[in-house]
Amino acid sequence: MRIIAGTARGRRIFSVSKNLPVKPISDRIKQSLFDILRPRITGAMMLDLFAGTGNVSLEALSRGALRTVMLDREPACIKNIHRNLEHLGFAERAKVIRGDVLKPLDFLLAYSDNEGYDIIFMGPPYRDINNKMLALSEPALKNVAEARLLAPNGIIVLQTHKTEDFAVPDTLEIYRVEKYGDTLVHFLRAKIQKDEPAHV
Q1: pLDDT of residue 11
Q2: Strands (E) located in 8-149
């Protein structure tokens, strides 16, 4: 894995053991994703849930994101993300937290100076260490919505396997989907709430 573009272009990203349920985003998907996100990256406050190797956040920092907060539950992933941040010189622009995306996420708002995040990326594992299919997208979206972590005009980027079904919280809507083989990348934003009809 390497950084594709920006100040750290071509630099190596260290990975984690293949025994962990971590599947880093492919370079093809990452290139396409950042082509789509290009107008939003510079100066962005980013949240990376199920951060894994930190691949997406590291690419964002290289391309001009202001800061990123990365959350993962695996100690080995946390250690590896710190290694990558130091290696690339991004440590001062990132916060790495060990935590569970499937538990309440309200505490993460403070790391955005209570302003919310411009981009929230979620790439939950497709399978666990026993190769059992997981369904983490729906509870993760629910927790993000309940914690109100999106900044005004912010977006959520959710990477899933094509066979994973999930419900979208009432406060969010999918406005774009890209397909890459067995992978779908969903783009979500806050749903515009229609005004209640006036009572006569």
Answers
A1: 95
A2: 45-49, 67-72, 94-98, 117-122
